[in-house]
Structures
1.
Amino acid sequence: MEPFFVWLETSSLSVWVRESPSLFAFPIILSLHTIGMGLVAGLSTAIALRILGLAPRVPLLELRRFFGLVWTAFWINAASGVLLLIAYPTKALTNPVFYLKLFFIAVAVWTFGAIRRLIFADPGLDFNPVHSRGRKLAAGMIFCWAGAITAGRLLAYTYSKLTSI
Amino acid sequence: MYEFQNWLIKTLLSVNVVRPFMTSKWGWPICESLHFLGLSLLIGTIGAFDLRLLGVGKRIPISALHRLIPWGVAGYALNVITGSMFLTTEPNQYILNPSFHLKLLFMTMAGLNILVFYTLYWRRVSLLGPGADTPLPAKAIGGISLFLWTGIIVFGRLLTFYRPGACGKNETATFLWTCFK
């Protein structure tokens, strides 16, 4: 992997994100990643809390209006995350916690999709109690987002090697 | 101003009771993780409410969505607690940091925005049923809230890049940068 890390870390994009004194390089990419995190994890947690029975008078079907924003924020984070990864590939890819973070994100996204297919496909949703499987999915999704956020934050403290160059 | 900041740093250091924990191996990282979880809870619930004020998901009655606000307040409380732990452990990293000044300014404005909302518009807005449009001032308050919380996140992240430091001989303080002797 080392030659690949060296090649990536000496690429102009990697150098720019990592070393540019511009506010629009690392600082703004990191800020976008945090705003996206708040929207993806936060909004889907709010939807999950409703599924779990909080705020029961909120019509579940109408919460679909927030799905588009959750996905938009998800793609902002995928893009900003790839840029951060290009800046510090050795730091992330040699740290097992990074793979744990990706695992939590993958399960959370799968759960979000499953909730949409299982719960939100039902047009009578607001007249029937939420399926118990839906509640389990909602609780699982909150857990996975919390895990992804914690693992992501701990990346700053658990890496063994910053760069290969 | 610098004397006041120095006094504030000393005072904050003297009221800190969590230093052994914060300087332990996992103290600071645990608090940072909690700070990010609180952030997400706040943005998810208060952000959804702001969006409803702006007209997203109009079929949701405002008062029904308001039941999620205590979760946002819990996230905020968590962040005030963890934030105070950071601040009193390393006060010079914040008190002399212009990004922290802007973060506090935005937090104050967000607080005033909330105050205006609850004193002037909450009664009227809370009675709105499904499908109802909010009055223009309520929309403005929702938009301002989203803008301010986004700014608070950005200035929080920029803290690292505007840590106060001693500027070199030929360096001059640029926007947001603090040099001290």
Note: The helical segments of chain A are 2-9, 12-19, 26-51, 67-87, 89-93, 96-118, 132-158.
2.
Amino acid sequence: MKFGIVRFPGSCDDVDALIAAERVGEATMLWHADRDLHGVDAVIVPGGFSYGDYLRVGAIARFAPVMEEVAEFAREGGLVLGICNGFQVLCEAGLLPGALLPNVSLRFICRQVELDVVRGETSFTRACEPSRPLSIPIKHTTGRYYASEPDLDALETAGQVLLRYAPGQNPNGSTRDIAGVCNRAGNVFGLMPHPEHAVDPLMGSADGLSIFESMRAQVGDRIPA
Amino acid sequence: MRARVLVRPKAGILDPQGQAVERALPALGFSGVRNVHIGRLIELDVDDPAHLPEMCEKLLSNPLIEDYEIVETGMRPDR
């Protein structure tokens, strides 16, 4: 099982994502200007400030050549994980519903948060322990998840909300405490917290590993090792 | 053609930047200020203004969260 981590000019969590993915499988970097995913089994769009986040967060990165390949990979059912800026990019690209707005506080927030796993049987959460919250850090200025009320109702009905900030812990004003959503098909997932920064007890928590382990388990079911 | 594109947060979406400025103005002695919203001004020269709406939909604004307004401001200055 091989993960591909997309590196844009301005990505900064790409190496952490690579190291985290290597804890559960193989991993390689993908360059933003490439039109080739080099045969990876899953794609991670990492955190950072792709293309300087000029205009709007994620707005320019969605037009990178590699993103056409990522969109095609997603259409074919490939697993795509967007973390923080990667989540913003996937929303701008229309691969995920909604948008990310500036935190209500207008401040950069960097701290550990507790996340409730809303659905534990998905391609991205199946390795999470049932009914145990995840402790994972956030670090962002533009993390307020927004979708219109009718769209939010539709997302909830379709089971696309996978992670919520634990009650009372919503750090950024996200609608309905949403921390992570998937697309309707369930193969593209984005979240503001950083699971790649929580993969070893030395980092304060290893709970983020379960996201990568879920992806490996999902791909392993499809492609025999 | 020279054009201005005005991009604003959609009505009803919480705009903390606007709120912060709305609170700051009375602190400077300016009373009677309401409904402050902060958006973005994009100025550009375009050969074909007919392309502007598509540019706005695809890149200059995010239609989920923003409204845009196109103001054509006359001929391109020579520079």
Note: The mean pLDDT of chain A is 96.
3.
Amino acid sequence: MLRVALVILVVLMVQQTVMVALRIGGAHPDLLWLLPITAALLDGPETGAIVGFWAGLSFDLVLPTPFGLSALVGCVLGYAVGSLTAAADPRAGWIKPVAAVAGSIGADMLFAVLGAILGQSQMVQVDFLSLFLVVGISSAVLVLPVNRLMRWALAEEGHRRSLVSAQSESRAW
Amino acid sequence: MPRSRRSRRTLTVIVLVVLSLSLISLDQNSRTHSLTSGVKSVANDVYSPLRQGVLDVISPIGDFFAGAFNYGSVQSQNERLERTIGELRAAQLEQGFERNQLRDITALENLPFLQSLPTVTAQTQDEYSSNFTATITLDKGRADGVDVGYPVVGAGGLVGHVIQSFHHTSVVQLVTDGQSKVDVTFGNGNQFLGIVDGQGPSSSMTADLVPPHTPLKKGEPMFTSGLDAASYPPGIPVATARTFHTSAGASQETIDVDPAADLSQLAYVDVVQWVPST
């Protein structure tokens, strides 16, 4: 768990120092969702949900949005990505970028809708086209380094999806 | 997949979802909100210096590349700034007499004006930390006299108001945020009233509840009204009219406005230690 916590902290710092400055069309890349997505791809829905919950909670501490909302969305995202990709071949080159783009956009939509339900109506007033373009493209690019970090973190406790051997996965990289 | 593993997985997710919903409930409930606010406050006290340390390390690298790529624009910006400083110096000399007159009149009328209110100057640490809110984070908090609800001014007008205040940091909701509503007054003798609504960080603001065919001109300034129980002291520039028209049969004039403050220049702002009169 120590390595996972460290990775969450590093990603939080990168997000809040570098990514927030990269604003295009009023939106910036969002690394948070890549944590549960990569955890779910590497180790299944349960790990995805757990990593999503703790990553979301860490981000909730520093974001002005309702406390617990990122944790909820992160948890659901990790579980959904892990479940939907369970039958896919994890060595396939397309799976990481596709999961990153679809997962990040889906998570942003869920986050906005739940926020609006909680009384933060401004969360559905953003320019969704810019948001989805920026978050989608950046997630497709940044999923690779985040996946590396997550693989290192999950290797600590022998976490690995059982159907992927370390050797075959390293070939895929 | 074995049934026991699937059951455990489902149970884990259910527990995490319930836990998340409980945290959201605690945060939304006014009686228990102080609990989550306290946790965030402690976390921010730990996080802010850490984040500042990271920024101190990476900023020179970013500045180096930014300077190398934008040398031409920086040079022309510098020339523009020097010209503006010269113009402001001249204007300051001209306005000295008028300012004295205004101060005298305001004192006679017993109207509150911003210069008489105590302010706390703060530096902006962070802008738009979320894609879904228009907020900035300041380096001053409760320990420095910054509290929830205080107006924030700078860069030529109203910037917003404090929505979260921690020990040494605070979060300001900008006037462009979708949740922001400011009572304004405008026109000759400030005879017209309206509400300036934020429409989100990437959309223009609107002025609502203005009667149809209210006379306006492009660039018409709008100021905080300071009516009873208003959230802001009177006389702070909020916005300027950009476009306006009254549609046939409409119950109000459609007005798009621009923020009076330059929200791209928020390195330093003033927090006004002012609370609404109840």
Note: Chain B touches chain A through 50 residues (CB under 8 Å).
